[in-house]
Amino acid sequence: MFPAGPPSHSLLRLPLLQLLLLVVQAVGRGLGRASPAGGPLEDVVIERYHIPRACPREVQMGDFVRYHYNGTFEDGKKFDSSYDRNTLVAIVVGVGRLITGMDRGLMGMCVNERRRLIVPPHLGYGSIGLAGLIPPDATLYFDVVLLDVWNKEDTVQVSTLLRPPHCPRMVQDGDFVRYHYNGTLLDGTSFDTSYSKGGTYDTYVGSGWLIKGMDQGLLGMCPGERRKIIIPPFLAYGEKGYGTVIPPQASLVFHVLLIDVHNPKDAVQLETLELPPGCVRRAGAGDFMRYHYNGSLMDGTLFDSSYSRNHTYNTYIGQGYIIPGMDQGLQGACMGERRRITIPPHLAYGENGTGDKIPGSAVLIFNVHVIDFHNPADVVEIRTLSRPSETCNETTKLGDFVRYHYNCSLLDGTQLFTSGETDAGSHEPSRPHFRGQRHDYGAPQEATLGANKVIEGLDTGLQGMCVGERRQLIVPPHLAHGESGARGVPGSAVLLFEVELVSREDGLPTGYLFVWHKDPPANLFEDMDLNKDGEVPPEEFSTFIKAQVSEGKGRLMPGQDPEKTIGDMFQNQDRNQDGKITVDELKLKSDEDEERVHEEL
Fold first, then answer.
1. Is the pLDDT of residue 465 over 70?
2. Residues recognised as catalytic
């Protein structure tokens, strides 16, 4: 508006924020009144024809305001307009820089409020007027809209709109932050937004990279928090403004959503969510681990999950196969543990990020469930659960034929196979851990130790057992099904067995199908040739061998069908494959081995 004092055709131009403050204070004032006799006006007449719903502040004496106006005479003729100059009035209210009527008319006004003011001559330009523009004793009519108001005593105003229930850390000076914002003037005019740029605004706080008011307004924010920050112009762009979008002396309003925050000095943060009891081993560098995870940004945005692929993430830890922060965060974990790992960007994907889901300078949060881990140097872990009360003079050894019950599971408790007896509550069909085949059995499992019929770790764990003994075996994958796994068994899985030995029998030496308990008959062929016709057909051979077994003179290889074993023995002796054995063909295996040694010599 016009300054008081000597006439002038130009209006003082002050920053937008100061003008807005003046407008807000003007709202609460009453209307000026004419004299009771209907004579000349004694005070300013104020008509508040548009009052905004929200009025957080009213113009007071000494405030700086920014406003637009049209000035007319009583007949409607315009004598001045800030709109015509496309320049707001920016000035301090109540310090004599405006005509008295305008000073009074702006008091109590709110931002975005509109008023009509009637200013009597003695509160305007009086009996002198303004040469060439305003005649003497003129009553002036102003239509005013307040756009900004502030005071030199103002500070940054912070309003929390939404605060997440979990706040892992708050912004401090020196932190690096990523946030979204909408920026407006105090009247709501938008001047900038990060949302239209397809990315967050990323910067350090308290290092001079931001306007001072934003530096202050971000302090104490939590990731995921939403704030409204109102910044007076002397803590923003001041008298110069910024380009064409922020006028001089403009108050700024930012609606901010903090995405994440970290400090270049941050280390990996660990939070144990669930620790299973009885943790006897913790993961270390060089171990191979299987784990599930959900990966999210600090604001909760999910960027990856192993669960969605229905497959664990399998890797060595501490050897550079994964990002450094995860390498660190997984060490020291127990099998079955759930932990939250917060990784600053300099230990994750840095300033560039990766792909289209992890932006540059992003803090990453992993919720991890450790399924199992092992080391390539691990051996089978054997723990005796119970032993029979009676004295145990003989234990299992290589070559023995054994029968046993078992339960097999992953280390997270997932049941894989069972023989149906070790776990009394289980009725699942059994699936023995035989190499290359799986069958369902309800009876105890059978195996010859060292015959390469079961996985190496189970074979090892069954050795040295007493009948009736129960053991727990932890078998690393390189002694089980390896990286590829097997039907029902994930790759690189550590297996947990609970086994109970039901029976054992001495095995036969390698390559033998039948052995004598004592020396064989002196006239073996004659005893075998039951009808004394000089040849032994399959029937006679089978009858003779079964008789030796039943009389306790010899035994067949355990664990196989006797008929098949006897048939194999006959085929070995029927050297010309004519369906009968002659005296020249019949040889004991010990004799064959001796002949072979002589041939080699």
1. yes
2. 69, 79-80, 99, 125, 142
